[in-house]
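Two records follow; treat each independently.
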Amino acid sequence: MKLSLFSRFTILGIFFSILRLNLPLQAETCTPIPLVGGSGNSVTKTVSPPTIPAGPLGMLGVDVTRNNWNTDWAVPGDVKYRKFIVTVNSNDSGPFDVRMYLKYSDQTAGEFFNNQGVQFQANKPLKIVAEPRPKDEPYQVNLFVNGIESIGKTYTASVVGCQ
């Protein structure tokens, strides 16, 4: 029995589909990214009020209060990551304003998330995925959490890099 060319390609297609399903998938390896100026890769913060400059219009150049809205993680330079995953969670109700960036050595940043009024639910963390620019590696992951309605509320954040 002779098979047509179409039939031969159909059989080959089915064969390779079955073969592909039985091959092991390459596992993704994700590792914690360390905090800048801290220990570990997880941070818990309570959102502070805005920075208030000292003196009239801040002319003295000294801040009376400093906000804690920014958190940075240092990306190791010896590893090439395909993506970064920031995980943020809070048991406090109410909105948080959340922004996430990858910072590059040319003094630019790629914004990957910018949402106001993020509502957290217990046991349902926000996961933000960011892919670096092609042929460029970031040196930091930056998370910015604030909002007038979130002052005094606590959140926890961490970052992993995936190869």
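The next record belongs to a different protein.
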Amino acid sequence: MSEQSASAAVNIDITRIMEMIPHRYPILLVDRILEFVPNERAVGLKNVTFNEPHFQGHFPRFPVMPGVLIVEAMAQTAAIMVVQTLGKEAEGKLVYFMTIDQARFRKPVVPGDSLHIHVQKTKQRGPVWKFKGEAMVGDTLCAEAEFSAMIMDN
């Protein structure tokens, strides 16, 4: 196992996630962090279930997870990566969206899917971080986007 692989395998659970970011049900969209490489990348997990409130109105006869929520899950995974990377320095701070570019939705995400959210830092300047995100179900790319966020005091 390479050094990078050893540092990538983590298990940050929902309790720790709620300590790191302020989001709560129904907008908390990351159940667990499966991989983490400080200052580089993270993989989050979202188990998509039919009892989530957006499915009542987002095509009830063919429930599809809204694309904006998939992008939000990418942003939350990135925020967790930022907070975990910065440690104590990030406590009490919020990570805000600044831009969303090149968003593409390739395949619907439906109840029963396990959505793996891959985010990679592409650039950082001061409090501004830029990322590339991909949302996968199995080996299938469902959505992708480039986005930037700023970490700020709460």
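Discussion point: The chain has one domain: 14-152. How would you locate this feature using only the token line?
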